[in-house]
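Lab meeting minutes (informal)
Scribe: AK
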Amino acid sequence: MFGLSVAIATPFDKNGEIELNEFKNHVFNLLNSNVNSITFFGTTGEGPSISFDEKINSLNYLLNENLKVDKIIVSILVSSFETAKFEIKKYNELGITNFLIAPPYFFKEPDLTALKHWFIKVFSSSEGKNRFFLYNIPQITKVKITCGLVENLQNKFGPDTIVGIKDSSGDIEQVNQFLKLKRIIITVGDERLIATAMNSGGSGSICGLSNIYPEILLDIIQNKKENPKIIKIVNELIKYPIVPALKSLISIKTKNKIWLNVRPPLNNLPVKSIVSLKRIF
């Protein structure tokens, strides 16, 4: 079973720089909670707002602090297949081989054949040891990962390369379609759907709320039962811009205001909204 991977948030100081010591503390606190892995620089991690050099430097720092490479999944969120290939190669040089890869998202609703060719360009130059999770988050990318695309890519590259899907559509019908696929790990990003997905053959979750409630989410995955508290919190969080709201909850939990900071083009959550979120914590 895949288990729980934390879609980790990235801490920034007041000048917008990554606060590496706080990042380290957060990573290892989560691993000490028995999560299975950490997914870096995705949506929750504000990956598109962070330069590639910053990502490499952060991961180098964490690896030097004894973070194990088998606990790392790195997000690839780019529209150029050449950039995707370059980033994967550089991460490989650090020993990292697990990736969450979104479709190219600048040109909206591309032809499915062209989308398949984009992924082929990326995967054809990839080393055999790399493992890819396809990231379906169409409300952000405006590009859907379809079952047909997954099957085509698996037929060409095999299930040891195209190992999984993260579905963050929030659509249980889409999740159910993915669950009909064979030889692939299905994870969900919407915490409200984890129990339902697990009862239908799902493998776990890559989600943002595990930054705050890793033990509860591990319990949902292991026991395949909904937790009313988590459903209530998610329903409240989605009333706000999700990343600043989630980071505000981390700040409330850790009592560290550094977690309130987000990078442009996002804005910090207003104080009155943070006060409202404290009531559900």
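Next up, CB showed the second protein from the same session:
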Amino acid sequence: MTIRTRFNGLFGNACMIALAATAVANSTAMGQPPSLVATTTQVDSSQPLTFQYLFFWKEHDTRTQNALDATQQELAKLGDDVSVKQIGIKDPANAEVVNYYGVSRAPMPLVLCTASNGAVTKAFVTPFAASQLREGIVSRGTAASLKALQENKLVVLCAIGSGTAADQTTLSNAIALKSDQRFAKSIEVIALDVHDPNEATLLAGVELNSTLTEPTIVILAPPGKQLATLAGLVTTEQIAEKLVAAQSACCPGGQCGPGGQCCPSGQCCPSGQCEPQKK
């Protein structure tokens, strides 16, 4: 599925697995990204997301310079909503951002794409083709989902667009969960308009599309596992039942998630491998 694939692509090799776990853990423990990284609360949904590519380097050699030149040239084609920031990991002034993303031992040079909501949308380890950098530009719904998953939260996607009263009722029922103390800090509710072409990739990843005729709830757990799909007029209680099951269950597939957590409110199993759940 798309979200999970994006995470696998984000940290897709052995060298990057530790970076993924550290970055996710740090994003939860440290709260807001360091001041060096440009972020905003993005309260006004009419404002476009912006993206900042963080170019981490260790040695200022020919390999690093070639990678930097290619990065800057490619990203210059993407307009004013995209910027590049160079970060030398040996510079004490950059210690905060290096520690935040946990990249001190990552292979260099390394490029992380960050959205203005604070989500890391993609990582690129050299060698990479400059054209691949565009993969970091994602939709608002994808950025919001990634941000929540990286904060070790469950995501409640509410896909609407049928134009019926059931759309607003289901969305309201999902939002009501944020007032429940069981879920207030452990979930994020994200509304998706199925007719928004920018969200087509995310919708396809959860097996939905613009022909949807009824509201649909999709629940995701870190690092992007699709746990449940509820179609039609869904009540707050029905969604809560799925969330309780997710919070109390072992990790999807039996593997503990990044940051040593099975899922929100769940502890990691010994050796990272959970025993089969009892039925």
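CB comment: Residues 255 and 273 are 5 Å apart (CA to CA).
No objections, moving on.
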